[in-house]
Specification:
2 copies of one chain form a homodimer.
Chain A: H1 5-12, H2 16-24, H3 31-44, H4 50-57, E1 62-67, H5 73-85, E2 98-103, H6 108-120, E3 125-129, H7 136-151, E4 155-159, E5 171-175, H8 177-190, E6 196-200, H9 206-221, E7 231-233, H10 238-251, E8 257-260, H11 263-275, E9 285-287, E10 304-306, H12 309-320, E11 331-334, E12 337-339
Parallel strand pairs in A: 1-2, 1-3, 3-4, 4-5, 5-11, 6-7, 6-8, 8-9
Antiparallel strand pairs in A: 10-12
Helix pairs in contact in A: 1-2, 1-3, 5-12, 6-7, 8-9, 10-11
Chain A binds a DNA duplex (16 and 16 nucleotides) through helix 2 and helix 4.
Chain lengths: 348, 348
DNA sequence: CTGTTAGCGCCTTCAG
DNA sequence: CTGAAGGCGCTAACAG
């Protein structure tokens, strides 16, 4: 019923092997023969059977992309960038690799499950985005899975995640979250702020910890007390920013600035401040992190640290495909850039 | 080297068929036997070979999701929702289906290419999101591809895209773009606006056309002239909103409101107005469409039409998996809800 | 409930 | 440059 390679071969009057070679283009085939085969393919509307080739060739053209939440532009941008680079060298509808996007929701189990599923698919590569969960047991489990994936021939690339030891990753592009966190707080301190609230991300995640460490380093460098009451943890979403800000304001009505773990959280913080009748930045300055597309459009525009998400994702994609050499030592640090905008100013 | 079903069978002292049955759980197997097999699987760290099963079973556990741009939350939200519903009935790391996200960038060729690639993968289902391109030739090509996909056993579901004839889609969930477009303009007219600029999406797309038709219907219902100078087309991005607004202002300095094709475009429009020294909504009202998460956080909050993107995506996913019955006739219209917020008010 | 027997459709040596 | 042959790892009838 469904047309197979053999049908094409018959129609083109060549052997199945020849058709295979034409389709994969990895082997010399006479131009005339190729033409004949291609015509037969068209005539028959033939479409290669992916699973069959994957089985025979022991590798598929699927690339896994693990993200926390694809609805979040932070991940959407990276996933899109990865995807834009994994296409083959072009040509017909061949050579193209496809991205399997796996939404882990930040859950360790789902992360593991998806890795297994990708191993099952014999994924050509796997790109893990976003911060890692800081739990020894889980880290070991992940490392084990990644090792097995690598052994099975998948190229593993970390994007925006710190390199973890014995992972067999081809490369790790890690964001300089610590440096960025430090920059943003330094900017605020430089403006004269002394009571700075910090809305951190969820605990036990490298991203959260690094950004917070940067913040603290900036405080320490100026000998400013790191009042524990000024730090609140919560998920990376708007709601958390809102609630945390209300809480911070309750604990420390004297604060003059709020640093949020990321832009989305910062948005929630702004909303809370506004609801309390506080003006930004006149009464309270607000800063975010990531520089998502909307951040320049909120009013006042958000001061934040720009992370080159698209570039990083694209590079991860190219490295995963072997189109670009991994960085020396397999690790590259991607730095953020402080974007000073209207949401921060000197304290009252 | 790599461990296979046969290895597991040997270790559990059963036949390969039995192992297969345990793993797929579609067949009765004695509890004791199952235990033994499962233990062997664990001991050997066995992972099923996806391509091999797909070949033998003639179906894969991949679900294609076509989107214009995964970095855009409009699509990210739907893709995430689809993905959340395609998981199997649960259980071990089995039964899980994975989402192959295909970024078409709005290009007809890429749309076709990806459909072919999904057919090659023998995708269990394919969900097409977003509006369709209005070009007879392309529409026919797509319809043909979809028909072939359906014949090959993939369940095709449209999400946010009008039902196209002879497509063999299991279901089409279409957004009521016309109704939404009409509502938003009616809202503005009700406030007293008479000169309303309209920033439409790219031409030749159903979404663009329907929203614009709704806008015009609202004007017509009030016998207000549809001044062609008040409509500008452009891509669905911020930049386009900015540029279009500058152009509208040039053409019609007397306009008192701007309706954007979607929220992202509206953001650009707001930025342009602000740069021109115009206040929102005091000088010019602005309205968007979609109600993306950031829309409530911009200042002033955006009046817009909320589309239940997550719900629609989830439903599409369930229908694609056969977990939910398709709507009667295969077509369901998903209505938007007018969200009146601070960005619109009566004219000066 | 379990084992046996054939393929699924393609790639890939190996000859020629 | 092209053909022939074997097997990739699993599933799906059939028997039993």
């Amino acid at each position: 019923m469904t047309v197979t390679l053999a049908d094409v071969a018959a129609r083109a009057q060549v052997s199945p092997a020849t058709v295979s070679r034409v389709l994969n283009g990895n082997y010399p085939v006479a131009a005339a023969t190729r033409e004949r085969v291609l015509r037969a393919v068209d005539d028959l509307d033939y479409v290669l059977n992916g699973p069959a080739s994957a089985l025979a060739a022991a590798t598929s053209d699927l690339v896994g992309v693990l993200v926390n939440d694809i609805a979040d532009p932070f991940f959407g941008i990276m996933a899109g960038a990865v995807q834009s680079e994994i296409g083959g060298p072009g040509g017909r509808a061949g050579g193209e690799r496809m991205a399997v996007v796996c939404n882990t929701g930040g859950s360790p189990e789902r992360e593991l499950t998806y890795l297994t599923l990708l191993q099952r698919q014999r994924a050509a590569a796997v790109v893990l985005t976003g911060g890692a969960i800081e739990d020894a047991e889980h880290a070991a489990a992940i490392a084990g899975k990644l090792r097995r994936l690598a052994e099975a021939g998948s190229r593993v690339v970390l994007c925006g995640r710190p390199p973890s030891p014995d992972t067999d990753a081809v490369a790790a592009l890690t964001f300089d979250n610590r440096g960025g966190g430090r920059q943003i707080t330094e900017h605020l301190l430089g403006l004269g702020h002394r009571r700075v609230g910090y809305i951190a991300g969820p605990e036990e995640r490298t991203t959260t910890r690094h950004r917070l460490e940067g913040h603290r380093a900036a405080l320490a460098a100026r000998d400013i007390e790191d009042d524990p009451a000024l730090t609140v943890h919560g998920p990376y979403d708007r709601r958390s920013g809102y609630d945390a800000t209300v809480e911070l304001l309750r604990r420390a009505p004297d604060l003059t600035a709020v640093v949020a773990a990321n832009d989305t959280v910062a948005l929630g913080a702004c909303a809370a401040l506004r609801d309390k009748g506080l003006r930004i930045p006149d009464d309270v300055s607000v800063a975010g992190f990531d520089d998502l597309p909307f951040s320049i459009d909120v009013v006042p525009a958000l001061t934040t640290v720009r992370l080159p998400l698209h570039e990083a994702g694209a590079r991860a994609g190219r490295i995963a495909m072997g189109k670009e050499k991994p960085p020396p030592g397999g690790v590259a640090t991607v730095h953020g850039e402080l974007m000073v905008r209207g949401s921060t100013a000197g304290p009252r």
